[in-house]
């Protein structure tokens, strides 16, 4: 299972890549495997400011629909439009082409509450 060491993680199986005051967010390799074939990603919160742990969208797989929880408070500044036509890239490349949103971080202290790759591995028993 792929759990890159340079990323941060949440208990809800999102990954976070911090670049300055912007965070790129997606779901982990573990999450996409648990969900199965992803057929649709919906994010209707573009340009909205949300609190940490608020739902920013949903991911739909063949068998289920799951909420996506924002790992950090901030404004959703970008959505990965490629997911509208290629949602399966979340399965094939969850940490690359399958990223979901970019967030302008409003509370940098929240970054410290995210899990390291080792803590996430422990959480999922990897």
Mind explaining what this structure looks like?
The structure is a single chain. The protein is an alpha+beta fold. It has one domain (8-108): Beta Barrel (OB fold (Dihydrolipoamide Acetyltransferase, E2P)), CATH 2.40.50.100. The protein has four helices and nine strands. The relative contact order is 0.26. The model has no long low-confidence stretch (mean pLDDT 97).
CATH topology: OB fold (Dihydrolipoamide Acetyltransferase, E2P)
- The shape, in one word, is globular
Query: From the structure provided, what is the oligomeric state, counting identical versus distinct chains?
Result: single chain
Major sheet size, sense and barrel closure: 6 strands, antiparallel
Strand order of the largest sheet: 1-2-3-9-8-5
**Helix fraction bin:** 10-25%
Q: Quick one: how many beta strands?
A: 9
- What is the count of distinct domains? 1
Modified residues (N6-lipoyllysine): 63
Keywords: Lipoyl
Organism: Flavobacterium zepuense
Cofactor: (R)-lipoate
């Amino acid at each position: 299972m792929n759990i890159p060491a340079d990323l941060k993680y949440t208990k809800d199986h999102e990954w976070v890549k911090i670049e300055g005051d912007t965070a790129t967010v997606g779901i982990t390799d573990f999450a996409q495997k648990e969900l199965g074939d992803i057929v649709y990603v919906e994010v209707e919160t573009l340009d909205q400011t949300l609190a940490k742990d608020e739902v920013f969208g949903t991911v739909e797989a063949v068998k289920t629909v799951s909420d996506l929880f924002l790992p950090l408070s901030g404004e959703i500044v970008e959505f990965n439009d490629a997911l509208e036509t290629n949602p399966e890239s979340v399965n094939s490349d969850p940490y690359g082409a399958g990223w979901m949103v970019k967030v302008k971080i409003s509370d940098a202290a929240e970054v410290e509450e995210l899990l390291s790759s080792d803590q996430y591995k422990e959480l999922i028993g990897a």
